[in-house]
User: Fold these one by one.
Assistant:
Number 1:
Amino acid sequence: MLLPDTLSNLFSLVINHYYVVAMSFKVKDLGLSSKGRTQIEWAEIHMPVLRLIREEFYKDKPLKGIRISAVLHVTKETAVLVKTLVDGGAEVWLAGSNPLSTQDDVAAALAEDGIHVYAWRGESRDEYYWCIERISEVNPHIVVDDGADLHAHIHAKNLTSGIYGGTEETTTGVYRLRMLDTSGKLRYPVIAVNDSYTKYLFDNRYGTGQSTVDGVLRATNILIAGKIAVVAGYGWVGRGIANRLRGMGARVVITEVNPIKALEAVMDGFEVMTINKACEVGDLFVTATGNINVINEEQIARMKDGAILANAGHFNVEINVNALERISINKKIIRDNLVEYVLSNGRRIYLLAEGRLVNLVAAEGHPSEVMDLSFSNQAYAIKYLVENRGKLNNSVYKLPKELDELIAKLKLRSMGITIDDLSDEQRKYLSSWELGT
Ligand code: ADE
């Protein structure tokens, strides 16, 4: 239940059902904070690059006096980023980027440490937007987002004045921001963190690849070996999932709308077919397209008895859950994140995590090692925006290549891996057009 906005500004703590409401945070239960703290420490051990950046930020205070509003999945890894920003001198306001992805223990630990967290697992749609409103009203200098709901809200409500710039974590959000930019309505510069090599090649591919399989297994405990797994979409996320499923013995089918990606999938050794055909053969379906109604009513109706549906795309629009609800004559919760629907033809269809991001809802999201890369990009992007305030156009930028490469170098170093340098002769060879055979 939500309190009216004015009441959320009370100084004293008010216990409201299961939530704790204070002047500047709203989380499920502050009593979970010690568990959350231990989880954050565990993440930090696996995030060596961000640890280095945190030390640098602590010393140099590049974010002194900077107010940051962030919509991110509230996980142990996000907590490590938030602490880095705070050590850099920032004040951070945080809301979750999915109603079901918040780790309540982590949210509690952050709130106890003075972060303005508005997030709990199981938010309704209204509560989700209420949280976003709370953190967009504080006149942020920097806006950090995962999916672009915060950027969209701030633009729709005309709250852009005083904002130096923003960052965007994910493919879907970058796509929305490019649409905003193309329509001439983007009101501050944005760094598309997603588009750094050290983000999408690792987070989207290995992070989502592993954590999606993790989510499917935690929700179902099925044997992957021998299953026919249909992966819709062969972008970096889709190919990560497809490869992990193949690695565990699944027979993987890819569906695509892009001929080049489809051709890549074929030459990577996957079977490629239309979703209309795949719907009849798949045991497990995972959507990763960023688009709407990728698995529709008619296709659900033609699936085999026992088919399992999961989504790995940012929004819960890829599987038509409304249609599944409509054509079902019975519905039963089997266990957390696993619901059985019985269709009128008697076939049972299983939906994971309500069709929301299965890796964050049924599991814990990407492992810390991969978020180390993604959130190092976020930290450097935020610092870059602060250093370059007033100098950038209202467009979507990539993080400068030198910073992207620096993150890769630091990660390699943390793994004890040394690579070669070009010799002077090789450098000269590469810089000339005259030298051939
Ligand atoms: N997105 C995917 N995995 C994540 C994680 N572990 N933390 C924050 N955002 C994520």
Note: The first helix runs from residue 33 to 45.
Number 2:
Amino acid sequence: MQKIRKAIIPAAGLGTRFLPATKAMPKEMLPIVDRPTIEYIVKEAIASGIEDIIIVTGKGKRAIEDHFDINFELEENLVRKEKFELLEKIRPSSQVEIHYIRQKEPKGLGHAVWCARKFIGNEPFAVLLGDDIVEAEKPCLKQLIEQYDETRSSVIGVQNVSDTETHRYGIIDPKTMEGNRYQVNGFVEKPKQGTAPSNLAIIGRYILTPEIFQFLDKQETGQGGEIQLTDAIHQLNEIQDVYAYAFDGKRYDVGDKLGFIRTTVEFALKNEEIGAEVETILRELLSEKSVDR
Ligand code: UTP
């Protein structure tokens, strides 16, 4: 059986929801407390046994490459100052190799994945999006890999969202359910409000078989004039089973402003170094606000 060794992290989007912050800085580099979002994603991939990662980057994304590179000057400086704990934090992991490819134009998530096709070759692979951080006892991607090992089929990570949110996601039309795993009739990208076939939304973690590239090769545009990964998955499901798996774990939506702020506050509260003080600050702010009212 083929092992899932490779992962794609698409990071070439424009990040318009965070403009102007993302005019010159990739949204994947926005920090949650003291760590860029993309580092949480890379850590999950490593903890799930991934050996090679390809990050799809675009214009203005050099900071991502620099972040995962060795910075000799900084390392020497930290050694001189005997800041060994920080040194550990800034050293790139030796457990994984990170590669880069450029998507020349942001034509959509499906196109970003297609850009990495030569790196993937003819083996099943993972895709992780930086818009979602998942905290789980067993890493989210590892849960999906275990499902792949059982089914030898593509597996898409899903979670329940409310009726008012389905129009923001790729949504599955479930057929049968076995434990947390679903067989699927179809996949719809951002259904209009009130038309979603279920509340099970695709949450940025995928295991895909290489046959997906047959459909991405067609470069068909869908919702929003973009080449959608969800549409290619829908087509893949017509020639081979694609399962959805409702993974265990708490998912943090860091792709929009409110979700990002919520995640930052929650992670700051949980942070050993600053958590207690953050709580005091929040209490102060809230009591000031209630006095204002
Ligand atoms: P999003 O639609 O959430 O990212 O795509 P975006 O386009 O950067 O953000 P907004 O909506 O303008 O604020 C999900 C993921 O797919 C990547 C993004 O970088 C993000 O990680 N993506 C999207 C690409 O790599 N290329 C694309 O053409 C589109």
Note: The first helix runs from residue 37 to 47.
Number 3:
Amino acid sequence: MRPVGRFAPSPSGDLHVGNLRTAMLAWLCARSAGGGFELRVEDLDERARPGVAERQIADLAAVGVDWDGPVLRQSGRREVYRAVVAELAGRGLVYECWCSRREIAEAPRAPNSPPGSYPGVCRELSEARRRELRSSAPRPPALRLASAVREFAVADLVHGRHVGAVDDFVLLRWDGTPAYNLAVVVDDAAQGVTQVVRGDDLLSSAPRQAYLASLLGLPEVEYAHVPMVLNASRQRLAKRDGAVTLADLAAMGTGTEEAVRLLLRSVGSAADTLGEAAASFDLRRVPAAPMTWP
Ligand code: GLU
């Protein structure tokens, strides 16, 4: 089947070489198989900063990434996400949650429950208590998914079959912001995405997303969670690590073509441009170990 891949940056800062490498890998996986490629700006939350998305889009184009459809901006789609939550609520799959972060951290939980998972406190509330909280709580409730499973399996081209935890994750935050897990699932389907290639920091989110997609009757996607780029102290590369964006590199005399070549070498390709690399790309040649930069 002809895949449709995508890249979905959050416009919280300029793309660094780690983000660009992931975008290039996603593009190579799709285009080397004659597939489609889509771009999405994940600008729903407060970290989105004006002007950043435009610079990210320009940097992607500069390294040779192209895309087929219009760039989808999540901020224009709040009604779509709300409608999906309303549909789930109509099926009895959504409940209100008034817990603060601190209450969640301190709540008693079953032994073996995965760290950070929601312990289900508000799922058990009586209707009378809910009514009371609706009028007395200091802020509106978040809306959570009433999950029927505790784990879910996904197929990953890098990690094989991956089984991971699914909890009653948030769909809409208390301030009405759609949660990442909801938006990503709705939008991958809306953009016809069949293949999700992204950093392996998101591997643990994939079971939640695949489970939600299954509840919504959306097609399964194929995942590839690829190793991230690390800094000299083996931590995830970040802006503060110095010359990490195309603009930083250019200021130090490393042009975009050179940066692209370096990144292509790091994914097992001898090509000089992204377009050339697509002719003979093989995900299996990408080293399993993270790349370090510089
Ligand atoms: N917007 C997310 C990020 O920049 C990526 C989402 C995804 O690829 O599913 O980390």
Note: The longest strand covers residues 36-41.
Number 4:
Amino acid sequence: MQFPLTLTHVLARTEKLFGAVEIVSRRPDSSIHRSSYGEVCARARALASALSAASLERGDRVGTLMWNHAVHLEAYLGVPVAGCVLHTLNLRLHPDELAYIIKHAGDRVLIVDETLLPVYEKLRGQIHPERVIVVSVRGQLPFPECESYGDFLTQGKPGYELPQLDENEAAAMCYTSGTTGVPKGVVYTHRSVILHSLAAALPDAFAIAQADSVLPVVPMFHANGWGVPFAAAMVGSKLVLPGPRLDPVSLLDLLDQEKVTRSGAVPTVWMAILAALDEHPGRWKLQPGLRVLCGGSAVPESMFRAFDRHGIELIHAWGMTELSPLGTVCHLKSSLVDRPESERMATRLKQGLQAPFVEIRAMVGDQEVPWDGETLGELEVRGPWIASSYYNLPDLQERWTTDGWFRTGDIVNVDPEGYVKIADRAKDLIKSGGEWISSVDLENALMGHPAVREAAVVAIAHPKWAERPLAAVILKDGCRAEPEELRAHLSQKFSRWQLPDAFVFLEEIPRTSVGKFQKSRLREMFAGWEWDQTAGGSA
Ligand code: ADP
């Protein structure tokens, strides 16, 4: 049957069936606010009505500068069902970059958390939205253009009916976090959001069911919060939203008290949580069925082992803003569960199998590489929730092949079972004497050393070998390790020519706004490194 796949249907069904299911939000002062899908959906309708009364039209963008909480969920639902486009803004970006994004997207309305008014203040000279609506607990409206969200919600027309939408209308948009180059906008349609939610909720993906209690740590401004809020709203599962309090103790308190069964965050967040669990044994009682989703950058083996030790299941996934973001998820096929532990671990470390409707191929030039688990190629993808262009950037169409595949910029191999392994981003691969070295593999192995907390490996120009690997390492508190010891540790798995020739010990590794290692910054910091000419190189 031809039936439009829209969030309007999700809203109506969820409020009818799951109105009593709780939405828990942590406020900035740490207090807990409890509401329900009934309330959130009613307020989402009020928001849609108010946007319409404010003369917003189909396709108009509404920017949100908000943490994860119930009001952001209202916007997730209310903005798209009005026919407008939810544009989530990454509050950690530099104000100039944020201003650029807001202007590039043409946001007509901004909805801002009271606690983020200082961020807004730094932008306000550069942007001119028509309405600035403040979600305020303390009633702060410090600038003349600000109005209160509570008041705005009352401005809709009585008897307002949601518009009938076409599934191909835009529902949401996100800008890439700028790890590579200028931020680029990606627009998602109702159809792509719905299909993505269906795929994300599947048992072999994020496995989100109505009975789950779901805590997305991943910010709702980062790639649709990985699609988790939409998927949870679709199936009617309880949502636990941590607000701005993302320290491990606050998160563990929520995981425990709200009996969370599904959560998602980038590896750095889980590393901090695992460290807190080890530091305070027995302090938190986590749900026996807790599964955590981890992606955004590669998950090191040491993290898998730590989760195993705590009896928590880790789901490794790969995605990109351009993919809504789900691309692949790693679950062991039934035929692999009885393999020896080392083989199972090797598979779990991969980024996994393509989700249904995501097509993949690894390419060198215009040739697809074989699925032999070795040959590297650039991953190309296509599917119903994968962008076909960037918003208003026609010059960047070269990221798509003429036959419609998106070039991810990730260098991968695919094994005969179909498991994709990301070796690197194209620009992070290290080219030494004509051979490629994967920085991700070296990082993972380094993080397996007992003294190493975090490690990032980058290519630095070398007069003889073109590039050689330099490892930036953060040691665990109170631990020591000399470069020779780390090299010896790595040489159990790597050939001599693949080992980093330089180790630098840092207090902190520069990160992007979503918590990934900022390798471009590291490369800048160590450009012009004086290599010991006798060391390294491909033999
Ligand atoms: P940005 O491009 O600004 O970093 P994205 O969140 O879209 O923002 O990043 C997508 C990229 O993150 C992918 O192309 C890939 O390089 C990396 N990535 C995502 N998930 C994983 C993972 N599980 N393992 C390794 N790399 C990952």
Note: The first strand starts at residue 22 and ends at 26.
